[in-house]
Amino acid sequence: MTERTLVLVKPDGVQRQLAGRIIARFEERGLKIVGLKFVKVDRALAERHYAVHKGKPFFDGLVAFITSSPLVAIAFEGPNAIGMVRTMVGATKPADAVPGTIRGDLAVEMGQNLIHASDGPETAATELAIWFRPEELVSYEREIDRWVRGPEAR
C-alpha cells in the first residue's frame, strides 16, 4: 500500500551536514520525495509538532532543541513508507540502534539523534498537515512506479 510519511532531519543533522546523506538513503531505498523544505522552526510550530508530549518533563527541551537551528522537512511516499522509514531510522537511543540504520551509523546521543519519523498512519497524516500545506505536496508518476504496480500499469 502506498503511504506518505514525514521525516525531519533535525537541527543536529543539518549542523553536521548530514541532510543530503540522510535523504539519499531514503531515495536509494526507492522512496519518492513529494515535499521538501528547509525550515527555521518557531515556538508555535514546535509546540504543534510535539503537542502529544505537552506536560511531560522533556517537552521544553524538545521545543528548545527543534527551534535552535534550521531543519529539513521531507514528505516521502512509497509502498509501506511509514514502516520502511521507521526501520531505516533505527531505535530512538543511538546506543540501541543497530548498525545499518541511520541512527546506528550516524547518531551519537539521545538528545541529538538526527531524525524524526512519523510512527503510524494517523501520526503521519497529522504531522504532514503541520509541516506542509496541501499545495506543497506534489503527486507525480515515476517510471519505476509503473513497474512496481505491474504490466497493466505500463
What characteristics describe this protein?
alpha+beta; 40% helix
In short:
The protein is an alpha+beta fold and 154 residues long. The chain has helices at residues 11-15, 19-28, 43-49, 59-66, 81-89, 102-106, 121-131, 143-149; strands spanning 2-9, 32-39, 71-79, 115-117.
Overview of the structural elements:
The chain has about 150 residues and is of the alpha+beta class. It has one domain (about 1-85, about 115-154): Nucleoside diphosphate kinase-like domain (Alpha-Beta Plaits, 2-Layer Sandwich), CATH 3.30.70.141. It has eight helices and four strands. It has helices at about 10-15, 20-30, 45-50, 60-65, 80-90, 100-105, 120-130, 145-150; strands at about 1-10, 30-40, 70-80, 115. It has a four-stranded antiparallel β-sheet with strand order 2-3-1-4, with helices on both faces. The longest helix is centred in the last third of the chain and has 11 residues, at about 120-130. The relative contact order is 0.23. The model has no long low-confidence stretch (mean pLDDT about 95).
